[in-house]
Amino acid sequence: MAGLRERKKLDTRRALSDAALKLALEGGFDAVTREAIADLAGVSLRTFNNYFSGKYEALAYRQSERLRRSIDVLRACPADEPLWTSITESVVAPLEDDLRDPDGAENQLPNREELAEVRKLLMRTEIRDVVSKELFDEWTDVVAERTGTDPEVDMYPRLVAAVVRAVGDAATEMYVRADPPVAINELIRAGFAQVAAGLPEPARKRS
Prior knowledge:
Helices cover 72% and strands 0% of the residues. The protein is an all-alpha fold. It has a domain at 56-196: Tetracycline Repressor, domain 2 (Orthogonal Bundle). The radius of gyration is 18 Å and the shape is globular.
């Protein structure tokens, strides 16, 4: 029974987050209010307030949830596995799980223009602050655990967490712009592969 209750809570959170995103895509950011989100999701404003502190948190939820699952995957990776291999799989696994869900928001974005709008939303300072506040500190901590470093005195785990975010941002940019289209998980894998290789300078193209 507890499992069913938790699943219902998760479904409600996702429904509210998806409603917020739909409002933003159809009417712009100003159309996103707590009342409008609750109405579109078919719940009361009180229910919305039980799940989210405001519209920024609702808009950021899908990304935040995926990052939380990534941290769990990373913690479960074998300790002797190369760090960037573990990081790549931990970032891609939750995304690929969502892409296999026919009802997931990732499979309901019909055109590239909307993808561009999603990117703009995720780049807003208010939403990025919601995502980064706790989760990237957790990324730093789990990297420190795996590498035997101390984030209070060693820069390394903080650099790794920053690179994880940078690869995600770059892959999203390329996902929106790529012609022909390229799957987002492939772009993320390619980004981490370049990082793992030491980010070598590419061969110069002759004009």
